[in-house]
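hey
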């Protein structure tokens, strides 16, 4: 089986306050499955030049960071809104680039809108058309490296946004390739994306299965990815790691966790009423 890391009942994380109160020390009081994989808790941080070390705040963050440090060919990350998936994965891409592990960062995302929220035709070149969708990734990059450096790297091709419509025939070599909001990627698109990987690259794929905007929703690649891992292909099992995060890992705002929980209960109730 492929590696699956879930934070459910696997780690208890204690946050201790030190002076000054802005600093937090994260200690794992109980070893998680991730720690049993042979990695030291000291390694569970992301270091970017000129930015404070990024330290996990929840059990799911610990599992995600350790999975990213394993440098598998593909890391699949599933979790609700507000757990910090985009932020932490973007940070890992920055660290990999600074450490010379990759030569560029490639950003991808399905340009799918809710049918009730269509903005219509967007003018401009590829970057200008994709900016509204890629903005969360840009925001993270700008926070770590600053807008001036990010703009220069985009100009030099060290950061590249690749729409699915322009993906066929490409080879993504020596790259950190980050696909966000993958729940809105169709099966055919996902196959195209996966088969672009070339030597020296790694993929990180993030998704929130509760926020599918595709019509019909059955067209999503979520089940396709899961089924690939169940086909008994040994290389896939050895080189893909899954990280499952949940509402207890949400850090955006306390009300976000409450909304996610209430929404799940409401869906269960509505399904029962039918």
């Amino acid at each position: 089986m492929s590696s699956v890391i879930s934070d459910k009942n696997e780690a208890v994380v204690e946050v201790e306050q030190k002076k000054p109160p802005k600093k937090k020390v994260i200690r794992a009081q109980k070893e998680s499955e991730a720690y049993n994989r042979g990695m030291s808790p000291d390694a569970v941080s992301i270091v970017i030049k000129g930015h404070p070390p990024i330290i996990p705040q929840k059990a799911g963050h610990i599992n995600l960071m350790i999975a990213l440090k394993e440098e598998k060919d593909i890391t699949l990350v599933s979790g609700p809104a507000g757990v910090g998936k985009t932020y932490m994965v973007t940070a890992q891409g920055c660290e990999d680039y600074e450490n010379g592990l990759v030569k560029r960062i490639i950003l991808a995302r399905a340009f799918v809108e809710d049918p009730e929220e269509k903005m219509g035709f967007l003018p401009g070149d590829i970057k200008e058309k994709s900016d509204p969708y890629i903005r969360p990734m840009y925001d993270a990059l700008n926070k770590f490296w600053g807008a001036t450096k990010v703009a220069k790297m985009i100009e030099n091709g060290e950061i590249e946004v690749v729409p699915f419509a322009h993906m066929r025939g490409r080879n993504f070599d020596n790259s950190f390739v980050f696909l966000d909001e993958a729940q809105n990627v169709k099966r055919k698109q996902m196959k195209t994306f996966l088969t672009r990987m070339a030597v020296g690259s790694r993929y990180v794929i993030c998704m929130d299965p509760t926020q599918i905007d595709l019509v019909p929703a059955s067209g999503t690649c979520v089940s396709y990815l899961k089924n690939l891992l169940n086909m008994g292909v040994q290389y896939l099992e050895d080189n893909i790691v899954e990280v499952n995060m949940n509402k207890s890992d949400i850090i955006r705002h306390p009300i976000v966790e409450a909304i996610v929980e209430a929404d799940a209960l409401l869906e269960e109730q509505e399904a029962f009423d039918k």
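Strands lie at 3-6, 12-17, 24-30, 74-78, 104-109, 159-161, 175-180, 202-207, 240-244. The first strand starts at residue 3 and ends at 6.
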